[in-house]
């Protein structure tokens, strides 16, 4: 390169260097400005995020949105299946409705099959013949009317005891004689008069049995009143066994004390009241509700017709078809007939329970303004046999507890012996009400009731909860038709079987 070239290149090179340095300075300046802007934007973003977070924490809607986003990520939690006992779920109303629908449909099929096979068998005139053989002769009704003599006799004895005209021992002797005649007189009459039908005899014996229990309670309570009067007691509590607190409606009634209760009106109120335990002052309702009374009367009439129709149309054909397998001792066919009879028998028993313990007894209670309407408790939830017998018939249970079970305990008997004695008494009356009207003694009802003792022990010892409840239901559904078939078979063989 020559000197001239150096001179030319030199200024150019210096100019390029100056331009590069200026460019470099400009780029550094712009880079510093970019960093400053970026730092400002980062600080502003952080402050904006903090403000947004504080605004979000103060807003519940935003918090729920964030929670919903979290739920989308997790959809499981610790829980049991509904049909598990540990789940605590108890609303099975839909399943209950399903069971009712299935029960109605299955029984409707059986009823339709019965109609197609046997036709219409319901005959209201035949029901009258079950009570009366001769339309001009009413022996069962006349026998029921005679019972008023024993009521008046009990009142007369109590009045004489209250006045002191007779001794306590002699009065108790007359009472027991009166009660013994109440027990034996209708039995002898039914057995000696062929004109009394089995249904009429069962009705009459039922009336006398109720009267026997009522007058026994009447005798006991008045005796307790005399004992309290002798110990300077001025009044008797509402109930010696089941005391109740007085209500506002009770204050309007006149309080009766001994011996002011020894009147014909007081005794006949107790005779017709739906209870077996006597009190001087029963809880009373302020008025008669006509709507309630008419509903109960309508139920009584409707359910009575339904019971008669089901017995004639459903039970009688099954029982008649069961006679041949029983005579031939065909076990498989006997079991089949038993299962066929179990459903209609149990359905009729349930309808009878509602007709008697709800409709009829509430009708009488409303008519007499009787206040204690606890005629039954939740026996359908029974997990033991003893719970069932204590809750399905409250009037009888109260009488047994007050006048039989507790006196035995006070005399030194053990609980087990007292319970066995109560079952024995119940078994006696079951057999009394069945065998005497049928005029044959087979002890099927007696043995069926006494069999409740080992069954009660087994269920209470080895079964609990739903299993115990199922065992109680099985004993009701299967046990009753067995006794029915036994009695009907024996009655058929004794009175209608062909003899060579």
UniProtKB/TrEMBL annotation:
State where the protein is found. Endoplasmic reticulum membrane
Q: Where is this region: Disordered?
A: 1-71
Membrane topology designation:
Multi-pass membrane protein
Pathway per the UniProt entry = Lipid metabolism; glycerolipid metabolism
- Catalytic residues at 430
Q: Name one Pfam family in it.
A: MBOAT
The GO biological-process annotations, alphabetized, read as: triglyceride biosynthetic process
User: A Gene Ontology CC term for this entry?
Assistant: endoplasmic reticulum membrane
Membership in a protein family: Belongs to the membrane-bound acyltransferase family. Sterol o-acyltransferase subfamily.
What's the protein here called? O-acyltransferase
Record lineage? Eukaryota, Metazoa, Chordata, Craniata, Vertebrata
């Amino acid at each position: 390169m020559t000197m001239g070239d150096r001179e030319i290149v030199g200024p150019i090179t210096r100019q390029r260097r100056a331009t590069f340095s200026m460019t470099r300075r400009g780029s550094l300046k712009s880079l510093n400005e970019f960093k400053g802007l970026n730092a400002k934007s980062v600080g502003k973003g952080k402050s904006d995020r903090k403000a947004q977070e504080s605004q979000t924490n103060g807003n519940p809607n935003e918090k729920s949105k964030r929670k919903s986003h979290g739920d989308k990520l997790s959809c499981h939690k610790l829980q049991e299946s509904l049909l598990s006992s540990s789940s605590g779920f108890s609303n099975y109303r839909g399943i209950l409705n399903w069971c009712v629908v299935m029960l109605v449909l299955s029984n409707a099929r059986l009823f339709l099959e019965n109609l197609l096979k046997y036709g219409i068998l319901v005959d209201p005139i035949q029901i009258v013949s079950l009570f009366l053989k001769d339309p001009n002769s009413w022996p069962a009704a006349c026998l029921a009317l005679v019972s008023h003599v024993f009521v008046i006799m009990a009142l007369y004895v109590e009045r004489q005891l209250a006045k002191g005209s007779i001794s306590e021992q002699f009065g108790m002797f007359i009472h027991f004689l009166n009660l013994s005649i109440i027990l034996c007189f209708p039995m002898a009459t039914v057995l000696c008069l062929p004109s009394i039908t089995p249904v009429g005899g069962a009705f009459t014996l039922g009336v006398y049995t109720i009267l026997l229990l009522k007058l026994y309670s009447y005798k006991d309570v008045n005796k307790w009143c005399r004992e309290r009067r002798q110990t300077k007691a001025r009044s008797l509590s509402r109930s010696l066994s089941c005391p109740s607190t007085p209500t506002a409606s009770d204050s309007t009634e006149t309080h009766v004390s001994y011996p002011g209760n020894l009147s014909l009106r007081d005794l006949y109120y107790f005779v017709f009241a739906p209870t077996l335990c006597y009190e001087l002052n029963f809880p009373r309702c302020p008025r008669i509700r006509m709507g309630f009374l008419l509903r109960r009367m309508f139920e009584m009439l409707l359910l009575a017709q339904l019971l008669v129709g089901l017995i004639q149309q459903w039970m009688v054909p099954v029982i008649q078809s069961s006679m041949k397998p029983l005579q031939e001792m065909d076990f498989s066919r006997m079991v089949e007939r038993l299962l066929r009879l179990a459903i209609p028998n149990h359905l009729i028993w349930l309808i009878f329970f509602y007709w008697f313990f709800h409709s009829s007894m509430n009708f009488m209670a409303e008519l007499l303004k009787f206040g204690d309407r606890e005629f039954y408790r939740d026996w359908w939830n029974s997990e033991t046999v003893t719970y069932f017998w204590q809750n399905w018939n409250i009037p009888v249970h109260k009488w047994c507890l007050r006048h039989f079970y507790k006196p035995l305990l006070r005399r030194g008997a053990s609980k087990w012996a007292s319970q066995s004695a109560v079952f024995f008494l119940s078994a006696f009356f079951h057999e009394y009400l069945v065998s005497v009207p049928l005029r044959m003694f087979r002890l099927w009802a007696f043995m069926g009731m006494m069999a409740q003792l080992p069954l009660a022990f087994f269920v209470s010892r080895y079964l609990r909860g739903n299993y115990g409840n199922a065992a109680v239901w099985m004993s009701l559904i299967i046990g009753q038709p067995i006794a029915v078939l036994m009695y009907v078979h024996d009655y058929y063989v004794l009175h209608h079987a062909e003899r060579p």
